[in-house]
Each structure stands twice: as structure tokens, then as C-alpha cells.
Amino acid sequence: MTEKEFMNRIGKSRVDFLQLVLDILKKNKTPFCVVGGLAVNAYAEPVVSLDLDIVVVAGKLDYFVSILEKRFTVKKYPNSINASMKGSDFRLQIQTGPRYFPFVKRAVARTVLGYRMPVAKIEDVLQGKIWSALDKTRRPSKRQKDLADILRLIETKPKLTSLLPSTLKKQLRL
Which CATH number is 3-121 given? Predict the structure, then answer.
């Protein structure tokens, strides 16, 4: 079984939702990068995630969402736009906060669970996880996952510890 087949089986997908999204981004020449848990997987031991978190370059965001709305179920939230598809448990989560936009230019091509895509550089992935872990409006379970992802990144590249705010260092006992 390939990594892609594994991901689609975990996501109970009858179609390859992730590949459909990647094909739409490529066809429409939409600059983007992966952030979040799957981006952590590009740098650390992979864990399963049913979310593909991405950042789309600001000037293409509205156009990309209009394309998604024609094929998928799209829901808009204050800091993200989510897309899903009947027949798949996977979700696309587009981060819309402008602080993420610079990540796209610094992204590097990586393979994530069988999919080749631009991934935010490791320092940017860490920064996104720091923002999420410190966001008190997020569910505690999500913030715990963010802390675990931070630890996964630091185990891969210990020098990243210097980028953590002291409150997180204390919380993580580093």
C-alpha cells in the first residue's frame, strides 16, 4: 500500500480529495504552502491528520475559493475557510490571517505522505504552531496537539528551541 492509498483509506475517501485540491491549485497557478500538522509531518515522524492546512497567496485567495465553491462544500470562518467533499473525511483548511502570507514565498517542495507540495519552511511551521498553541480561543485539545507538534519539530531540530517564547518553554519544560 502506498502512502497516498493509506491516507485515502484513513480518510475514508472514495476519491483522492487531497490530490484534487493540489491539482486545482496547480492548474490555476495558485501559489500556496502547507502549514499545520501535515507540514510538521514533512519535517518529523509523520502522524495521521485529516486536515490539510494551507496558506494561499493573498491575491489569489478569493479566486481559489470561488473555484472550490463549485466543487466542494465551503464554510467561511473568521480566520479560515474550510472545504470538504462528500465521500471523504478530509478537510481543506485555508488560513486567511495575513501573518501567514509571507510563508508562501519561503516555502520549499517536500513530500508529505506521498504528496509532493510546497511546505512552509520549518521555522515558519513552528511559528504557526506557536501562534496556535498560544491562542486561548482554540479548544484545549487543539492547543495540546499544537504543543505536541512543537515538540516533534524541536526533536527533529533542537536549535528551534531558541525560537520559543519563554512561556512555552516553561510549559514544555524545556
Answer: 3.30.460.40
